[in-house]
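Homework-ish question, so no full write-ups if that breaks the rules, but can someone show me the predicted structure for this set?
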Amino acid sequence: MATTTNENRESIIKSLKGTGNTILDELNKGDNPSVSIPLRTLSNVYFDDSDQLIKLGNKKQKRAFFNAGQSKKFMQTMLMAAQIKELLEQNQPALSTRQLYYILKHSIPGLKENTFDDQSTESDPVIEDIEVMIDYLREQLNLVAVPKGVMSGPITIKDMKTDDVIDYTKMGTAGGAVPPSVEKDVLQIKDCSADYVLVVEKFAVWNLLNQQKYWKKNNCILLTGKGQPARAERRLLARFGKELKIPIYCFCDMDVYGYYIYSVYKQGSINLAFFSEKAGTPQAKYLGFAIDDVKRFDIPRSSWIKLDKHDIKRLSEVSKYDWFKKKEWQDELKKIKEFGYKIESDALVAKKIEFTAKEYLPHKIENKLFLD
Amino acid sequence: MTSSIAKELAKGQRAISVAEFFEKNRHLLGFANKAQSLLTSVKEAVDNSLDACEEANVLPDINVELKEVKKNRFKLIIEDNGPGIVKKQIAPIFGKFLYGSKFESIGGKQSRGQQGIGISSVVLYAQLTTGKPTIVISKTSPKDEAHKFKIHIDTKTNEPEIVNAETSEWMKDHGTKIEFEIEAKYQESKQSVPEYIKETAVINPHAKITYVGPDNKKLEFPRVSEKLPKKAKKIRPHPHGVELGILKRMLKATTARSLKSFLTKEFDKVGSGTANEIVKKSELDPKILPRLLTGEQMEQLLNAVQDTKIMNPSMDCLSPIGAEILKNSVEAEYDIDFVHAITRPTTVYRGMPFQIECAIGYGGSLNPEGRVGLMRFANKVPLLYQQGACAISKAVSDVNWKSYGLQQSSGSLPNGPAVILVHMASVWVPYTSEGKEAIASYPAIIKEIKLAVQECGRFLQRYVSKKKKAAFEAAKKEKFKGYAQELAIALSKLTGKPMEEIHKKITEIADTKFSKFEEELDEMEEKSKVKPKEELEEEEESEEVEQNGNNYQ
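A: Not a homework solution, just the prediction itself:
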């Protein structure tokens, strides 16, 4: 029932076994056993211009057993690696990282201490460490991140585990869930007649568009990750980008957080830089809401929200990221700073309930008014 | 205070009877209530026994027994192996206030009692509360018979009244046994007879003391040292320790015929040059008969004395216990892991030589929470009452104990599994009252006590931090052991190799590599280490009294 392909499974098992054997070799030589783990911090990511993705650098951190500060983390890393290997060998169903945390959490004999005491600060980071250490993604390690996204539109997928065929045109007002794993061995895109994919930042906006049958009238896939997307939505969008060969547009709030969510879909994130190649969608375009739209569509003043000091601070941070260095983005960021206000995509209903669906989106797409 | 009372009594002015005097002043003499009266009675008798034994070069062997006769009435029996008392001395020693060698002029030597009213006050207390005479049996040598006296005090004349005297059989070679029947209240906690006996045993390591309480339970405190303490030498008073009242008494008593000879004859460290200087400064007629000086002239003389530089008093007049013996004694009486003891050099307050000794015991079965046990001693006598008013408590509370490995809320006694023992040995201990329960806070005394406890504290700090470090490392080692076990399981799952083999390998490397692991621990600990505070800064020496001490007028 594992989500990973047999081929992947074998090579992951081999890789984990290799890590164990290297450590045994060190022990046999009388050395301090250690592993090297690529650093997952801003200082160790770079923006690759050629494929427009955020990538992990070469800086590595050594984690050794005979070191007072690292001893426990080293042990945790090995416990996690052994557990992942065992689950793969037993061909178990995919588990969540929380479930894995509970499997490994136990009191260490003779100590008043647990192997793991916290999921988010102890076991989750160790999982990410293993992902970068052996260069396989969590999804391939048979672990799932909890997805939250929904979509609708003219696309049919097949769940390879159940053989169910899912038609996203028949999902009603709720839309269809993005499956926890969207890897090829679980999800196959059977059929898609959409002309483009519209990613909407906010569920409320997506919900209104779905009720208005926007996807039907415009023949598109309507997808939301409900704010900052989880791994599954990003990975799914990346597959759409690679396999469907249709345009991908993002519709977010006109503020620095909206811009950044777009960039995560498009170029990846700092913490999961190793995931960008699998989950980035470089061809995605920013449809809006953008600063020029304020005048173009005469958005009433009542919909403007003054920028606070956090917005301004974040604006200057984001403008320094290499993946925001394009002139159009530097201009956008500069203009919003000068303008001094932000506008939520929800606010557009103030003009007219059907404004977004009937006027704004068609006009922008038709006239190719987007940022890259 | 007492000096003046004593003087009045000694002069035979009988404005009030001895009984009346005692009734009026019993709180000052240590008989404030039934519990304290019991303790004072034990204390006076034990002090006498110890003093007598030491005087005769006998290692003290003392039995104390307390029997409940009826509610609030006890029979107190104290028996020693001292030299005994010759027949004609027995009655006056016990039946006459202010009798005995202790009541001499100021100066003198280090001794337990100072006023010579101790034991007779117990006789009187017994007589006033139960009406029973005190029974004394004493024997001076194996070939002599023992004498048994039943004694009352004639409260009108301050003379002993012998109720009965007889010779008696006593199996002992020599010694004295006293029986009092007194009104008393027995308690077992703090300020109790057993506590007093225990502390007495600690501070008198050369004594063997046995105590049988009202419950028939026997406590034995064996002899820790076979060496008798060095005998304290008697010295004449130092001029700088003399106040008007004493000067007056000395002038009246002297046989000297001139001021100069009075000064050189009666005082320590006054030679003819110094005496000439004092007389000159006083602007008094050098030929004046000392006992004819007027009050005004006495003041002139005293001022001249204070204005003149005089050598420090003789320092060999004290008999400290000694650091080594003190240490052994604390070790013998307490279940502890660490002890350090020191004896400070002799120094001077108001012309009086004194010496501070300190011992700190730590760990073992001592209560790890709550206040430390503070034991105060003056001239080898435990001080159980008025802790708060005592210079020792003040000095100990004043030290920053956090630098020395103990907890403390500022300005109070420290907390932790420790006992702190402070002993002041002096020719004249400045008690805050006649009950001899607390030492007056002269700055010179406070300073010496602080220096003493701080020195012990430094050794304590070293011990505590070593112990903490060892505990920390042991805990880390344990942790590491646990991790190694988990790691072996994980590596076995990863590689398919037997877990035991891997675990053995890790342990093997741990043993050879462990020093590295420890080094890193050391670094971690280094950061959290608190540097002990620098030594107490030298204070200006000041001869002012912080609290009203004894003033001998």
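Now go work out the reasoning yourself. Hint: The longest helix of chain B spans residues 443-495.
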